[in-house]
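Why run this: before we spend reagent on co-expression, it is cheaper to look at a predicted model of the complex and decide which construct boundaries make sense. The entries below are exactly what would go into the expression plan.
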Amino acid sequence: MFKRPHILVFLAPAVIVYTLVMILPLFGTLQLSLFRGEAFAGLDNFRTLFGDPRWSASFWNALGNNLWFFVVHMIVQNPIGIALAALLSSNRLRGAAFYRTAIFVPTVLSFVIVGFVWKLILSPIWGIAPGMLDAVGLKSLFQPWLGKEAYALTTLALISVWQFVGIPMMLIYAAMISIPEEVIEAAEMDGVTGWSQFWKVKLPLILPAIGIISILTFVGNFNAFDLIYVSQGALAGPNSATDILGTFMFRTFFGFQLQLGDPNMGATIASVMFAIILVGVSLYLFLVHRRLRRYQF
Amino acid sequence: MKVRRLTACLLAASALTAPAFAEDVTLSIESWRNDDLPIWQEKIIPAFEAAHPGIKLTFNPSAPAEYNAVLNSKLDGGSAGDLITCRPFDASLQLFQKGQLADLSELKGMANFSDVAKSGWSTDDGKQTFCVPMASVIHGFIYNKQAFEELGLTPPKTVDEFFAVLDKVKESGKYIPMAMGTSDQWEAATMGYQNIGPNYWHGEDGRKALIAGKAKLTDPEFVAPLEQLAKWKPYLGDGFEAQTYPDSQNLFTLGRAAIYPAGSWEIGPFTPQIGGAFEMGAFPPPVPKEGDKCYISDHTDIGIGLNAASKHAEQAKVFLDWVASPEFAELYANALPGFFPLSNGEVKLENPLAQDFIGWRKNCESTIRSSYQILSRGTPNLENDMWAVSAGVINGTITPADGAKKLQDGLDSWYKPAN
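The model came back. Tokens follow.
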């Protein structure tokens, strides 16, 4: 490193920028969470957050909702992403490029547009969802999903899945087409074809990509805020049913309506979010990532 | 561009040649009402300057969402204008406590306002007032006159009549009885709970009893409005749980709903949207029993105060006295129908619907929203809780009694009445 100073020179821009815009504010947040106004308070804010029945109820509600949001992504988005990638990489599909683009388009849309458009689609008054269900005789199935405590969060998670399913699809598709022909041919010589080929040959080889996607999903979901804020507002109704850590932190830090902002408690929640993400990523790196075997020639 | 430069030259030339009045003072006004800029420039400022030579005014609004932050930094940096448009309650109270707003208790014009009108800009004990009240918004119900005539209905006076009217509209099947959704939650609290509530908790009496700790949100008079809200559910139309505030506005202005639980600020925007398709009428929140005294939410919204650091305090007080006068009240109320003057003087309004709303002040007692003064200072925030509880009660996910208990428990957790 020090024998070859040009390495430092090339690293410097990224390190400096990242330190200024990410690492310093992160430590600023951690510092803010240890103060009450101007006075040093130690871990008092954390005691309030976990010890006060009202604060902790809001916190666990937000964390639980966040976990559910993540679970829906893992069990819906990623399997669908893998299935789509498998279909796209099959040689018999025509127009693969069109499908690939069409499925990827929502990913590049602004979440404001996505939230607004889906709110309109699902609107019981102007929406096309009730009409479409009516056309196939299933009008009775229609519910104002975004306004029901039982369904609102799942609905939002599925909207998010619709928006982002293109990313796992693309990553896995890339992993699949990078599987060498020799491996596939060898499998076919041994009589492994179709489904069993997917399970026994392709899946083990795309596992690293699935691992990366899982961790990206985890970090993204625990930092999620925008879609909920756009479609349900900062109070994340109905009755906090869609409140996740991001909206909880936002309301606390910046205040809302008559509620005045509380930077210290807001920073406390942000620090806890950081800790959750850190633990999650560490577990993944130490327990999962090291065991993944990559195909090597 | 050329024209502008020419005007600038002409202006500069005229400034140099015209005999300058040595005593001319220019006062600048900070405000968040950027929508009202033309009204100030075309109506209010000329009227004042004509009557008070020697004082000039400039109106410098910023965007509503940024106003508090911009104003605080200007005040801290000493660059704020002489006159400050005041948000009600805690935001302005903080400025007064920091010594940035001057005490106006001695201003002559203050005599034109009732204690309720002044409460938005007074200390908790009501002894000092620091802004002149400018306007309030009144809650009630706007209805579609055409729909009422068609179905042979008259505006209801009591709660029973109110539900009878809703039943008739529902039976006809032609209109949604009431345009309101619970998706945004605040509609349910502001146009629901705070609209019908004062009739039950007797306006100021109930509100002050809450602040004094003599009444609780679990008392019958505070639970009763929640019980009435729970009965609104069948009249709100399909899928009201996912209906947003703009949805409700559109449903009513498109003529698809008969009644709209409202705030008077809708008068201005609704009139052009309806475009004469039908006439609007309004009735005050129905009273529980025939002959009961009626109360209306007449919520203080905008005031104007004096920057304590202003170099022209004398001239600014002249302007503030004028703002407190009936003349200003009439000007302002007619320029912005739906924002009502708070002064006790007689004010003639030209907009018939605005006349209806303000006419209720004659027979009904005014009060302000119960959660705004003092009670929303802590965490959990009472106002936010009211949103969730009012919406939940209408959705049927929480009972009125449990909702009231949640509100009171939240308040008890941080609020200790002074006595």
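The interface with chain A takes residues 89-90, 181-186, 237-244, 247, 251, 371-372, 376-377, 379-384, 387-388, 391-392, 395, 397-398, 410, 413 of chain B (CB under 8 Å). Residues 2-17 of chain B form the longest helix (16 residues). Bring this page to Monday's planning discussion.
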